[in-house]
Amino acid sequence: MKKSILMFAMILATVSASAQFYVSASGGYSISSAGVRFGTETTTAGVENTYGSYGEGMHTQLRGGYFFNDTFGVEVGVGYLNGADQTSLLVDLPAQAQYINIEARGKAYGASASLVYKFTNNIYGRFGALIKVGGKTESDGKIKMALSQTEMLNVDYTQDYEGRLPLGFIGAVGYKYDLSDKVSLFAELEYMGISVTRDTSEITEFSANVNGEARSIEQVKAIFANHPNAQYNPLAAVFNKNIEYVDELPFGANPAGEKQLSQKVPYSSFGINIGATFYFGK
């Protein structure tokens, strides 16, 4: 028993002798990795699909870690994403007086926990789990379209989407350059693989009129639901003040109602991080 305690104490002392705490701060930019279809762009040149990920955009991270020895460590981090605009729907047909532009972007807070491995004193890798702990997907819509030869519809709205708690993967390879024993600079290539299942949405801002006469959300919804051009009928599903997204609906349920089938939206990305690390002793 005494030998076991002595052996454990020696191992603990050896690990502690080379252990090291650190914190790092970084910023960077991510691009889409999922390539998921978002919608379409319709112009006089034709119809084109749009692809992307809500994970694209500027991001910042703050991480803290602990190295058990010169090779292995663990790390936890938090980050914020200010996503780039993604086109959900664009219709630009001036000759027909039809203009619809719906764009969305992610604004998300995330947290991660990773294992870190040093390949050399300068090159390292990390991989672990990622969750989205807050934020939203924000959608802005601008619609200007002729309903008839004498009626012009104008709509401006903002819709916020909340999602269920997701779990994803994070991995990175980085290179660090030591400025001193306490400070180093680093650059990383990072992959985040995560998707968010929509839970609820709310129209937070809304204004609409026909030839200057105000229209309600319900009236705009009816306009699109009954529009003679079937291309515009799906827009009726957007115009509910609040929507709950569920995994199943009863037979015959209104697909444009206040309960709609949920869907997964991509936040996956490839990114570059540049930052600094501060060490707290060995």
Automatic annotation (TrEMBL):
<dbReference type="InterPro" id="IPR027385">
    <property type="entry name" value="Beta-barrel_OMP"/>
</dbReference>
<dbReference type="InterPro" id="IPR011250">
    <property type="entry name" value="OMP/PagP_B-barrel"/>
</dbReference>
<feature type="signal peptide">
    <location>
        <begin position="1"/>
        <end position="19"/>
    </location>
</feature>
<dbReference type="Pfam" id="PF13505">
    <property type="entry name" value="OMP_b-brl"/>
</dbReference>
<feature type="domain" description="Outer membrane protein beta-barrel">
    <location>
        <begin position="9"/>
        <end position="211"/>
    </location>
</feature>
<keyword id="KW-0732">Signal</keyword>
<protein>
    <recommendedName>
        <fullName>Outer membrane protein beta-barrel domain-containing protein</fullName>
    </recommendedName>
</protein>
